[in-house]
Amino acid sequence: MSASAPGGTPPLCVLAYTPRERARTLVRGLFTRRNARIITVRNVDEALEAFRDSLIDAVLVDAGAANDALWEVAALAREFPSAPFVAVAPLRVADGPTIARCAALDFVDVLVEGVDDRAGREVIGRYFFSTRFAAALDEVPRRLAFTTDVQSAAWRRIVAHTGRAVRTEDLASALGVSREHLSRRFAADGAPNLKRVIDLVRLIAAAELAKNPGYDIRDVAKVLGFASSSHLSSTAQRIVGTRPASLSALRTVDLIERFVRGRGRSRSSSRPAIGRSS
After folding, report:
1. Domain ranges across the chain
2. Which of 120, 100, 122 is nearest to 111 (CA)?
3. pLDDT digits (tens, 9 = 90+) for 188-239
4. Residue 61's beta-bridge partner residues?
5. Structure confidence by residue, pLDDT tens digits, 108-157
6. CA–CA distance from 23 to each of 54, 123, 132 (Å)?
7. Which of 110, 150, 158, 154 minimizes the C-alpha distance to 133?
8. Could you name the CATH architecture of 6-131?
9. φ, ψ for residue 69 (rounded to 5)?
């Protein structure tokens, strides 16, 4: 398994169906073991297993492989639209119909062998699920009412985990403060609790993944590292007051709105301290 990316965030996870050596060489040249984990599959069953085991950031499909397995894997683009599908092809004249078919299946781009070997990472970088997730949430939602640099910095590091679990200790270490200091400063002036904000971001990611026809709630829970679908269910009820089955119908703004209506702080944190004067 690849090491974590800089800052302690999980590395990208790229699924590759590349039966031809030329396509495999191109894909290997785009990523390093430090910044990405590449899952190579041979057929649609292995691809489905990968989708239900890991959060897939992108799928690279060897469009130069003329076989049935190619189209079985390519058809998953409709089942898992959260993961961008990118064709890898020599782009010969005869490849035109193949590329057109990929486009009809909602592939987002094509990497051309011998042309995009070096620049391919930049070409497809903007499509990665983790990249799009972080960009969409880079600006702290106003409804969360964060007012300090510590809150904003912690928020962006939480978002960088794309819904995977993140420990308070790791956040504090990355920000150069103690765990106690971070938790206290994050929740200052009536702001939401840090742990609840972590859970909110996890549920935002869960809602996005739940919109994939190929996922059920059990799959989403596993991909994001929840202990079980029951754990995801209890988190959804506690943080946004809804059942997991309803997540796919909710937008990020809907989840945040539900969160700020009294669910951003635990009951114990909102009680006055014993002996405090009114």
Report:
1. 6-131, 137-267
2. 120
3. 878 899 999 999 999 999 999 999 999 999 999 999 999 999 999 999 999 9
4. 17, 87
5. 999 999 888 888 888 898 999 999 999 999 999 989 989 899 999 999 99
6. 23, 16, 25
7. 158
8. 3-Layer(aba) Sandwich (3.40)
9. -60, -35
Which amino acid is present at 65? A
Indicate left, alpha or beta for 231 from its phi (over 0: left) and psi (-120 to 50: alpha): alpha
